[in-house]
Amino acid sequence: MKRLPVLFAGAFALAALASGLAQAQTVVKFSHVVAENTPKGQGALKFKELAEKKLPGKVTVQVFPSSQLFGDGKEMEALLLGDVQLIAPSLSKFDRYTKKLQLFDLPFLFDNIDAVDRFQSGPDGVALLDAMTSKGVKGLAYWHNGMKQLSTSRDALRRPEDVKGLKFRIQASDVLEAQFRALGANPQKMAFAEVYQALQTGVVDGQENTWSNIWSQKFHEVQKTIAETNHGIVDYMVVANAKWWDGLPADVRKGLSEAMAEATAHANKLAEDINQADRRKVVDAGKAKVVTLTKEDLAAWRKAIEPVWKKFEADIGPELIGAALKSNG
Ligand code: LMR
Description:
Layout (H helix, E strand, L loop, with lengths): L2 H20 L3 E6 L7 H16 L4 E6 L10 H7 L4 E2 L25 H9 L1 H6 L8 E11 L1 E4 L14 E4 L3 H9 L3 E4 L5 H7 L4 E4 L1 H6 L8 E3 L5 E9 H5 L3 H36 L3 E3 L3 H11 L1 H10 L1 H9 L3
Parallel strand pairs: 1-2, 1-3, 6-7, 6-8, 9-11
Antiparallel strand pairs: 3-10, 4-10, 5-8, 5-9
Helix pairs in contact: 2-10, 6-12
The site of (2S)-2-hydroxybutanedioic acid has 9 residues, from loops.
């Protein structure tokens, strides 16, 4: 009779252990640097919603926007250390991990985001998702933001001459550095979270970004002129720590892959609308003047930036550049 409570206790302990194991949750920390009301911000939230719905009790996704957890410069390191499981840096920020992705920074390569989408969903784009697997980084998806515009603290911003000698904040990309050097300007690599203050205090005179980033970071409040150059893109690769991803239970990996595919479709559908709506908000706010460029103006920018292509052609590969150009249709 005396042994009964002991048996009960043992059974309880086993049951508790079993249910604990059954409920062992995969916690996915997803860190990014932009605001929630942007294409990437919305994509990350959608991914959380879908992943938790598809894998109830098995997965929790924690989204950290606006460089709250890790900013530029730290997030790749954090991913490789396993401090965060997913990040979605702009394609410009993988310079140190692969030269192939420099493709996306070549100025005036893509006519619009539809062309970017065609290239990314084709064989060459899909293959590039694996460009960093040897470094422990697994590409899961491309997410769009939009075309870049150029802004400065000066009144005149129509022709390449207007940016000569000015200081520009750039993302950590050698192509973007070469782009501003070709224009006779002074590029400065800087984390996204620091840009507003750098513009406000005059540490830099200008920057390049999409309408959604300009609006959500209030860059238009600390810039005088924004020229609609559409000279490049800000697009993202959602990446995971490859070891973590490959080590996930098969059902969890499957559910997360499905959630990622659906969140990608959602975010990519929203991106253009968000950017156009934010463009309107910037115009309506009336703080910075928005300049629409003529064909002649744009031809002058193209000509001034052209030498950049030659410099990076060998590293990127001429075939890859050719394939990207074909996606313009
Ligand atoms: C930037 O640094 O300007 C962008 O890459 C930020 C982002 O993630 O859109």
